[in-house]
Design a protein that fits this description.
Elements lengths: L2 E3 L14 H15 L6 E7 L2 E8 L17 E2 L4 H14 L26 H5 L20 H11 L9 H6 L15 H15 L3 H10 L13 H4 L7 H12 L7 H6 L10 E2 L1 H12 L3 E2 L2 E2 L3 H7 L40 E5 L3 E6 L4 E6 L13 H8 L4
Antiparallel strand pairs: 1-3, 2-3, 2-10, 4-5, 6-7, 8-9, 9-10
């Protein structure tokens, strides 16, 4: 099995961790690869801010072969982008530019209308806005997702129509619930949060996140669009993806269509970033440091406390066939609980489709990031939940 070791700060024993569990983790990843569930795996784990596990297994290409995935290989992080966007919102709250209880319609006038005017920033961050959840079109006959409505609008758009208004186009899809009625995971809500960041800061959400979070934290491998240099060490997921990376490296990207150019105006705060395990671990350790990494302050202690304390109670989760009458959730951070998890009750996290995971346990001062690129369109719990338990089982 291909294996590449990454840089660490100390041995597992120095931070009270049973090193034999790393072999168990590797065996589990190999089993998932043998079962054709994942292409490869990479991980980075720290305790007390010191990295003691860091490595990658398997091939860098979907074709297999002997070119290994590396600990420094970059991946799309999908919805883990949301927690970084959440911190951007938190910074604007600290600066007095917005409040969590602000009606979104007071900032984005398209929502200052009946049906939408009860939505506030808090409900977008906690997925309780009443907006339709992701993938609702798979469950509701004839339903068009917010993204499909935006795409239809952009395809038909003409400059004579005036300033593009993707928000109004999307909101023609309406709401599925009352605000606060249910937890329904909605990425479109984070696009709205990205527009709120733009309105409150005066610059794009992507620029704000880069200038206020990524660069101060030294997250040089984390960006919305990979540079040619980062593209050279990007995981290869398909032939189409490989061709795109080669075009990017050569500086020969095709001219985007008019609709694609318009899509550039929609904030990528719901899932647009790419990163590496070690870079994301810097973000996780900033959160464990109560808003600080070394001498760099991103958030204040009280802000971190607020956003990472359970915020929802007695809010049902029936999303995608769920049956949980009391969904545990922080503000922008998942606080999933249940019989299946070994981590501490204080733990918060986020998952990214396709897949990747970041889990932060303040009680144990343990943070873990891992990438398990799926080889199909299914979701494999054993690549996410089971991995969590293997990692946490090593604590002495």
């Amino acid at each position: 099995m291909l294996f590449s070791a990454g840089q660490v700060d100390c041995t597992p024993e120095e931070v009270g961790y049973d090193a034999s569990r790393i072999g168990v983790l590797h065996a589990h990843f190999k089993k998932l690869m043998d079962q054709n569930k994942i292409q490869a795996a990479s991980y980075c784990v720290s305790r007390y801010g010191k990295t003691f596990m860091h490595g990658a297994l398997g091939p860098i290409s979907y074709r297999g072969g002997n070119d290994p995935l590396l600990p420094t290989t970059a991946h799309r992080i999908a919805s883990i982008t949301k927690v970084i966007a959440t911190v951007a919102i938190a910074k604007l709250v600290e600066d007095g530019a917005i409040r969590l209880d602000d009606p979104v319609g007071s900032i984005l006038p398209q929502l200052d209308k009946e049906l939408f005017n009860k939505i506030d920033i808090f409900s977008l961050l906690t997925h309780t806005s009443g907006l339709y959840p992701d993938c609702a079109s798979d469950l509701i006959p004839y339903h068009k997702s917010y993204w499909a409505l935006i795409d239809s609008y952009f395809q038909a758009y003409s400059p004579e129509d005036g300033e593009p208004d993707w928000i109004s186009a999307a909101l023609s899809g309406g709401l599925s619930k009352k605000v606060g009625e249910e937890w329904q995971y909605c990425s479109f809500g984070f696009a709205l949060l990205g527009e709120i960041i733009r309105k409150a800061s005066g610059i794009s959400a992507e620029q704000y996140i880069e200038e206020q979070i990524l660069r101060p934290l030294g997250m040089e491998d984390t960006m919305f669009e990979p540079s040619p240099e980062l593209a050279k060490r990007f995981i290869i997921r398909s032939e189409k993806h490989e061709n795109h990376l080669n075009d990017l490296i050569a500086g020969q990207l095709p001219e985007p269509s008019p609709a694609d150019k318009l899509w550039g105006s929609v904030p990528k705060t719901g899932g647009g970033l790419c990163s590496t395990p070690a870079d994301l671990l810097r973000f996780a350790n900033m959160m464990l440091g109560m808003g600080k990494l070394g001498d760099t302050r991103i958030l204040g202690r009280k802000t971190v406390e607020k956003f990472t304390t359970r915020a929802l109670y007695d809010t049902p989760d029936y999303c995608w066939g769920g049956s949980n009458p009391d969904r545990s959730y922080g503000i922008g951070f998942d606080m999933r609980r249940g019989a299946g998890f070994l981590y501490s009750p204080t733990t918060y996290s986020h998952e990214g489709a396709g897949a990747c995971s970041m889990i932060i346990d303040p009680t144990e001062q343990l943070a873990a990031v891992w990438f398990v690129p799926f080889k199909d369109n299914n979701w494999h719990a054993d690549a996410i939940y089971n991995v969590t338990n293997i990692i946490w089982s090593g604590l002495n």
